[in-house]
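Holo prediction — fe (iii) ion.
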Amino acid sequence: HDEAIAPGAMLLHAFALEQADALLSLIFAVTQAAPLRLMQTPGGYSMSVAMSNCGKAGWVSDSHGYRYATHDPLSNTAWPAMPALFQQLAQDAAHAAGFVDFMPDACLINRYAPGARMSLHQDRNERDMAAPIVSVSLGVPATFLFGGLTRSQRPARHRLQHGDVIVWGGPSRLAFHGVAPVAHQHHPATGEFRYNLTFRKAR
Ligand code: MD3
Ligand code: FE
């Protein structure tokens, strides 16, 4: 069933479940070409979530800040193309949530090992705030933290399971959000890891 978790935010339970194995195979192919890595924050810390990208633009963080880049800084080559299945899934999910013609140009691949987390933040590096963000959860479940439009608002918690998809648009697009430390658990499709795909229109 589908669930509105905030104004403009729709949780599509198990929307990607049938494609999950195919999505994971494509994640492994993309990350052969553009390896998962722990990026540095502008403040000099190492993130606990390993990241890579596919599509025309990829999200990167280093000592200079957060931005989208056409090239992988590890190889100085273009990010791998976004697989057609990724593009189609993102567009179908956006459509199911009421957003027509979502054309993501960026797909961030996040891999959470046990203990990895993402602290509360806003996604504000994208040019077009009218476009939604689509996220796909795979593997070990996680607790997603969804705050308000100010950092001080106490976040609501949502369990995200293998195959769940969330579409974030409208008033929730600039909400603070994060992921609580991922538990040591095993999932038949991913072992100890949680993967998250985040589709965005960056440019
Ligand atoms: C709510 N990733 O990569 S995806 C991120 O599970 C990020 O890896 C988390 O936050 C993860 O930036 C959460 C869900 C998500 C993505 C973007 C959002 C939720 C959002 C933008 C606005 C509001
Ligand atoms: Fe985010």
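READOUT: The helical segments are 20-33, 84-96.
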